Structures
1.
Amino acid sequence: MGIRVLDCTLRDGGHVNKARFGENTIREIVKNLSLAKTDIIEVGFLRNGDFSQEESNFSKIEEVYPFLPENSVSQYSLMIRPDWYDISLLSKNCGKINFLRFAFYYKDLELTKKYAGVARTLGYKFFLNPVNLPGYDLPQLRQLIAEINQIRPFAMTIVDTYGQLEMERLEEIYSCIEENLNIDIAVDFHSHENLNLSFALARHFLNIHNPKREVFVDASLQGMGRMPGNLCTEIIMDYLNEHYAKSYNLDFVLEAIDTHISPLKKIYGWGYCPAYYMSAKLKIHRSYVEFLLEKEVPLPQMRKILVEVKKTGKGAFFDKELISNLYQRTAL
C-alpha cells in the first residue's frame, strides 16, 4: 500500500490569518501544490457563513471549483466540523472534490455518523478526524475504533490536536489502531509543533506503520498552522523522495513558500513557542496559553497558572471563566 501527503495549508493555515489568503494566493497555492504532485490538497473548510473569494472558507462545495486547476494529478479535500456546518447544503459529488474530512469531538459522534452517511450517499469518500485522539485512554480508543469500523470511512486520522504526542504514546496509539481497525481503512497522521517533534514523529509513524495499510501524513507549507504550527510539507516531501522513492517536485513547493507563505510568517510568526510546549506537556487546551499570551504573562508565572488549570481537571476544554479567575488571582 502507499504513503501519501495531504497538504492542509489553506485549511489549517487559515487558523493563522482567519483564512484571508486572497483569491489569487489561494489559486496560486493550489496550482503550485498540484504541479508539485501533492497527493491531496485540502482547499479549506466547508462551514456555515457568507462566502468570500478572498477566504479559504466555503459555504457550498461549488464555490471551491473555480480554484481547482484542470488536468491535475492531485486530489482535493475539504474539512467539515459537523457542529459548524449544515450538511443539507452539500451537493452530489461531481468528481472535483475527492474527499471530505470530518473533525469531531466524541460528544458529536452521533452527528458525525449522520453526516458521514449523507456524504457516502452523495458519492464522497471521507476521513474521520477525532479531535485530540491522544486524550483517549486505551479502552476509550478501542470503543471509538469499533464505532469507526461500523461507519466504514476511507481513513481515520491520528489527530494530535494539542501537540502532546511523544514517541512511546504514538506507538501505543498506533498499535491499538493496528490491532482493532479494519485493514481496508487507511490511517492518517496529523501533528503539531508544541514539542518540536512533528518531523521526528512523522518519520516514526512511517517506520512503524503496517505496509499493508495505506497511510497519509498531513503537512503544510513552512508549517503554517494555528500556533505553534504543523509539520512542514517541504521537509516531509523531501524525506519521502529520498527514502520512499517518491517524486514530489520541490521547486514548486519552494516557489509557493517564497511567494506566498514567507511574507505571512513575517506577520504572524507561527512556530515553536515555549508557552505551547507547556500546554502540551500538561495536556491542556492551547486556548489557555493564547489567553495568557494576550495578557503578556511571563513564562514562569504562566507555568504556575497552567499547572493550576491542570489540577482543576478542566484542561481538556477551554474554560474562559476559569482562566480569567486564575489570572486575576495571580495578578494581585
2.
Amino acid sequence: MIQVPNEKFRIGLVQMACSQDGGENLERAAAKVREAAVRGAQIVCLQELFRSQYFCREEDARLFDLAEAIPGPSTDRLSQVARECRVVVIASLFERRAAGLYHNTAAVIDADGALLGIYRKMHIPDDPLYFEKFYFTPGDLGFRTFDTIFGRIATLVCWDQWYPEAARLAAMGGANILFYPTAIGWHPAEKAEFGEAQHDAWRTIQRSHAIANGIYVAAVNRVGFEGPPENGLEFWGQSFVSDPFGRVLAEASVDQEEILVVECDPKHMEDVRRNWPFLRDRRIDAYGPIVNRMLV
C-alpha cells in the first residue's frame, strides 16, 4: 500500500533563456541548480531541452547532432552537482538511443548522484514551429514514478501536460508532485489575438490536473525570443507551482530568468483528498471505452 509521507519538501524551478552554445547552457543550468540548492530547494527541475535553443522550429537533419546518450555528458555533469548539493535534479534532454532513434527524455537524478531512471515523452506534437515528430520517437516506458530521497515524484514533458490521462496515471502511481519541463511560447503573428487565451488555457489545464488528482503540479518554462523575428517563438516563461487545491503558490515573470523555490506539504495533499475524494469515487468499472480513439 502506498503511504503518503509526512515530510515537507522544497522544489526549485529553473526558468532560463538558452543560447546556441550547448556547453554554456549546461554550465549555466548547473550553476542555477546550485543556486536553487543554496536557497533551500531539494528537488530541482530544469526546463525542456535546456541544453540548446528550441531546435524543433525547423526540420533539419543536421540538428540530430544535438542529441546525446543517457547516461552521457549532461547527466554526468548534473549528477556531480546533485551529489555535491544533495539535491534531486530533473533534466530534460534530447536522447540519442541508437542511430536514427531519438527521444525527448527527462532524466531523474537522485541526491546521491545516481541516475534513478528516465521518462520518454509520450505525446509528440506536430504544429507550426513545433515540428517534434520529425525528431522524436514517442516514449515506450509508460508513465513512471520515481522514489527519490525526498519522496515519490513523476515527470511528464510539455505536450504531455494537455492530457488528463497522463496526469491521472502519475497520481495513481503515488507521486506527491508532477513536474512538467516545458518549452511553450507565442507565434509573433498570433500573440495579439490569441496570446492571452493560449497562456490562460495552458495554466488552467495544469491547475485542473492538480485539482482532479489532489497533487502538486510544477511547470517550468523557458524565456526569450528564439528564431527569426518574423517566424520565431517568444517563450512566455511564467513557470508556476499549483497546490492540490489548484491555488498557484508561486509564478515567475513572463520575460526574466528566475528560480522559484516552493515548499510542498504532503499533509495538505492528504487533507484535500479527504475532502475531495475524486480517486475514491472513480467508476473504474465503467471506463473501458477510454482506450478507444473515439466512440462515434
